[in-house]
Amino acid sequence: MCGIFGYVGARKDAGMVVIEGLKNLEYRGYDSWGVASSVAGKLVVSKDTGKISGVDAKSFSDESTIAIAHTRWATHGGVTPKNAHPHLSEDGTIAVVHNGIVENYRELKEWLSERGHTFMSETDTEVIPHLIEEEMKSGSDFAAAVRRACLKFEGRFAILALHTPTHTLVAARTGSPLIVGVSKKSDGNAEQGYFIASDIPAFLKHTRIVQYLDDGEMLVTDGESILFSDLHTGEERPKREIEITWTVEQAEKGDFEHYMMKEIMDQKESVVRAVNQDEAQIMTLAQSIRDAQGTFLVACGTAGKACMAAEYFFSVIARHHVNVAAASEFKLYHHFLTEKSLLVVVSQSGETADVLEAMRVAKAKRAKVLAIVNVEGSTIAREADYTLRINAGPERAVASTKALTGQLAVLLLIAHALAGKLQEGKTLLLEAGAMINDMLNPRYIERLRKLADRIKEDEDLYIIGKSWNYPMALESAIKIQEVSYVHAEGFAGGELKHGPIALIEEGTPCIALIGKDEVMSDILSNTMELKARGATIIGVCPDRYDVFDEWIKVPDAGTAQAIVNIIPIQVLAYFLAVHRGKNPDMPRNLAKSVTVK
Ligand code: AGP
Question: Which one of 22, 237, 393, 403 has the fewest CB atoms closer than 10 angstroms to its CB?
């Protein structure tokens, strides 16, 4: 959702630093942007609607050593320059950027209005600088005033506040992530300073040393030093400095036009990296699944489809029952939980609010939590009892591609470990990785580009699958919907005759995801049912069948078929977006990290 980035330190181009960094948070999804820097003791604010990519960062290289910036994803108030952050206090000395929602902002606004505060926007955020100012009037210093104000807010949030007279940044969080990039002269860095951001790519160019602000904590920095404390008690919270392994190159799109295509291509290597796990740890976790009295796989969106596929992996490979739930629905499962339950959460970002909520539901019942994440040090990774990383490297396109195949690989590996076949699983996945490497060649990509061109005017597209290819049909629909805005729906092939087949008309494009497995003849029959009603069939299958109008050849990957079958659909979705004139990296209404419930 919203992106926050601030800097205080020795550099004299703080405005430019934060604008440049903000461009690296564009993937989070936003509709307006803004920046405030302190120049000669006065706040200079610029904000606008639309994209920040075209904004010349150099025009912000003012004589400033402190600045905050923000990309806004509108919740309260329309997309207007006035509603864009930062928002200022009445006296114009405090600027605030905010991610999340101040749920009780109406009462606070009324209370502040009675005390003479005037508001320029329709946002909930604007009450924050005014309330901080009001707290300062009653004698608190800036940091204490931020603390006191935060304790009055209801809802989950992250804020970054700048106070010009004391040249200080204060950040606090009760939900959305905030990470500090540390640049210390003593460590050989050119400049002393602190970067505070919603995500690491904002400052990766400047430093790989990070400190994490946890929920219920705040920090104060003047650029020389930083102090972390408990938001409620004020007690100091010392922090470790952690070195991030991501490189700037990994987080860039290089020669690719879009991150989505770059990340699809990354799968030539990322699936193999996902398999690179500590075997002893995988065996221990497999044992925990065996011992648990009820294992629940919980996630959202694409990660949720990986969990659904894993239900089949555990059934077919390990003969072990697991439950799958959407994280946003999991609260209602709490009656099933005991301290012997195991929650397995899957999340690329490690920051998804619904997943964090599910973890809290499980923890309240003292159930254990295993997290499968991509972003190291993310909130989900830190709050879980055990963590496995999928090692996909930074995924910046809103449409999740390499994270999905990494999640599928790790879940498949665990299923094999549970069946006592870890080495067999490893070999299978390494072979699948090599197959993906072969598939993603220029000729294959070109075929899919042409296919997308042929079907780009169709407004409806249906995808069917069975077994693990059923969740992949659902995932295919998500991918196509979110980047191309084509109406796509996935179904279990056997469900067609119970309703969806009524949607099929002459020429309706339908994709069938097929593997050479025990359900192949069933799904081929379902494909024939579609064909008999006039559908144009695109078969994604290791072998060609007469029923296909178009055949997209995929390798025979055995129990890893879900991983290879989804690859051509990702490419197809990408080209459908491009051919329809959409930017696949910036889908409307969506954000990369969904940090609101
Ligand atoms: C994927 O293409 C989607 N953008 C979305 O469904 C995503 O998978 C979901 O929001 C979960 O995110 P997470 O993996 O970061 O928790």
Answer: 237
